[in-house]
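To: structure subgroup
Subject: Chain for Friday's discussion

All,

I'm putting the inputs and outputs inline so they're searchable in the archive.
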Amino acid sequence: MSEAKLKIGWGQADITPEEPVAVCGQFHARVSEGVLDPITATALVLDSGDEHVVLVSCDLVAISPELWQGVGERLDGPSADALIMNATHTHTAPEVRPYGSAAGSSAEALGVELDVMEVEDYVEFAADRIAAAVNEAWANRTEGSVAFGLGQAVVGRNRRWVDIHGKSTMYGNTNTPEFSHIEGYEDHSVNVLATYDADGELTGVIVNVPCTSQETEGLFEISADFWHETREELRSRLGEGIFVLPQASAAGDQSPHLLFGKREHERMLALKGRTAREEIGHRIADAVEEVLQYIGGTQEDAPLLQHETIELRLPLRALTEEDAQEADAEAAMWRAEYEEELAKLEQNPELRDEPLWHKPLWYVPVTKAYRRMKWYERVRERFEQQKQERPVRDVTLHIVRIGDVAIATNPFEYYLDFGIYIKARTPAVQTFLVQLAGPGTYVPSARSIEGGGYGSLPASTPIGPDGGRLVAEETVGKLLELWGKGSN
C-alpha cells in the first residue's frame, strides 16, 4: 500500500468530425450524412505518487497505432507509457486506421474515390482533442478514493447459432427446423469502478459491459450508439457532471442483437415507450445505480496501483490449401461483381451526382464488392506467406492492479470463451477485461472455428484459437504474478 493518497483526474473531449468522413464498421462504404449524437473520448488519470495510469475510452470502432501514438506525443505531464486506450466499437464513427489492406479512405481502400475527410486528417484531429482531455485530467487530479462492485444487466447476446449439421451462422433466421442451438456462452456482468472526491462525492464511473456498442450499427450518421443513451441516463440519475468511461469486455461473439424472442422484445419496448438503445441505457444505469448504493462505504483512498505490459508475438492462424482455394473462389466472385458495378458507373457517370437522400447510394454496391474481394484475397496472401515462415503479429497487453481490482486489456474482438477463462482463473476480487485496446481483429474460440461463419472464417480471423489461448494464459500469468500467487 502506498502511503500517499490516490490522486484522480477526469477529462472529456468531443471527437465528432466536423466534415464528412468514411464511417467504419461495414463492408460497404458509408459517407457520414450528419451527426445523430456526439462521439466522445473520456479520460481518467489515477496517480498514486509511485505509479500512474491513464485510461481513455473512445466512441470509435478500434484504436489504431497511429491514434495511440498521436495522443502519446501530445501529452503534457503523464507518460505515454501509462496510456491505455480502448474503443467501444460503435459502427457509426470515423475510420481511424489510415493504413493497411482493410483501412483508409482512398480508392485503394474503398474501390472508388469518395469525397471524405482523409483518415490521417481525422486521426490528427482526434489525437489533438483526446490529448487535451488527458492533459486536462492530469492537471485537475486531486486526492480522492475509489470503490468497486459488480452488477448484472442483459445487454450482450451470443450472435452465432448452430444448425443440426454443425454449421454456425452469425445472425440470420433461427425460425427454421434446421436450428439446433446458440453457439456459445453469454456474460451479463456489469463491472463498476467508481471514483470519489475528498468529500466523498461521486465524480465518475468506469462501466465495463461484455458487449460492443452496435445496436444501430448500419446508420449513415455519426453516433456513439447505446453509450449515448447510457451516459444520458446515468447523468440524469447521478448528476450532470458525472464522467462515464465505458469499456467493452471480451465480446467478439456478442452483440446487442437478438437471435430469437424479437416479437416479445419489440412489444415491451412499445409498452415502455423506449427505443432499443434507450432500453439498454436503462438496464446499464439500473445496474450501476444499484452497485453504487452498496459500495460507497468501501472506498479506498490509497490502493496499491501497479501497471505492467506484456509484449507478445502471436502466430497467425495456420491456413490450409483448402482455405486458400475457398477464399480464391469467393474473391473471384466478388471481383466479377466489382467489375460489373464499375462498368455501370462508367456507363452512367451521372449516378455519382445523385444526392445523399437518394437510396440506394451509388457507391454502396461497388465498395461492398471491392472490400469483400480484398477481404478474401488476403487469405491467399497469408497462405503464401506462411510457406516461407509462420507469420506473426506483435501485440501489447496492459495489466493494471488497483487494490483488489484488475484491469486486463487486449487489442482484439476477443471471443467470450477466452474472457471466461481469464475470469475463472484471476486472483483479483474483480477483473475488468477490456477488449479493443488496439486496432482490433476477431480472435475466435475453437468451437466457433468448427462451425465456420463470419467471425470465424479465415478471412475474418488472422489470429486463431491458439493465439487467443496464449493471450489468456499470459494474462492470467501476469495477474498471478502481480498478486504474488506464483506461476501460471
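Points worth raising on Friday:
The first helix runs from residue 65 to 73.
The chain has two domains: 7-304, 319-383.

D.
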